[in-house]
Fold this sequence. Notes:
Blueprint: H1 2-11, H2 22-28, H3 34-50, H4 58-69, H5 81-100, E1 107-111, E2 122-125, H6 136-146, H7 148-157, H8 165-180, H9 203-206, H10 213-240, H11 242-255, E3 257-259, H12 260-276
Helix pairs in contact: 1-2, 1-3, 3-4, 5-6, 5-7, 5-11, 6-8, 6-10, 7-10, 8-10, 11-12
Amino acid sequence: RGREEILQVHAAEKPLGDDVDLKRVAQTTAGFTGADLENLLNEAAILSAKGGRRFIRQADIDQAFVKVGIGAEKKSKVISEKEKKITAYHEAGHGILFHVLPDVGPVHTISIIPTGMGAAGYTMPLPEKDEMFHTKGQMLQEIIVDLGGRVAEELIFEDVTTGASQDIKQATSLAKSMVTKYGMSEDVGLICYDDEEEVFIGRDLGHTRGYSETVAARIDGEIKRIVDECYAKARQMIREHEDVLHRCAELLLEKEKINRDEFEALFEEKTVEASAE
């Protein structure tokens, strides 16, 4: 509600089209500061002006959102058909898990257009509400989603690429926080082993961790267990929806970017097919 009011302030002197829904924009911009929201509408206005339009469309805001939140899309970058296909399946893997898991998602946009952040594509969720706290179950689901792209690559191409490196980094970091910061490991217990707050000059040279090698080994073991279990669940779920994986990848290769309605329709097709059988 606060973001919607901020958007209304910055939109006061900007002509908005009839299709613009500031409430929906506020819903998709969880984590944006007031300056981010102002920048979002300014970018949308620039896109509208470049297109020779007198009004800002919802499509202009959606495109500006990608630039502000993820990085400008580089449509001029030449991508081989093989890389496009890998990216399409990778992002479809993320999308399926966002859709089927109850505490993450739903999907807002899936794209195989490279961005300024160095990503070959992206899958953007649409948070239903702002949350101050995250549950253990939700964090596990986030790790499962992170591993969806890698799983899809393995299942379809029987090989892996470097494209999942950031996903793996995020999954590992989250699993580590669960074990060392949030006390979510029964084996390690309710003890904080995270010492990131100890910042001082020469930390890299003089810092030593405040726990034994035995504890370190238990922490490493728990992190690996969490990631491995989430990987197994991601693999099982994507196998169960492999038909949707193929249809989503094909649609992405055709259109390069799909929205929530187009993506969710792929699951409705599966339901219709199952009923017909």
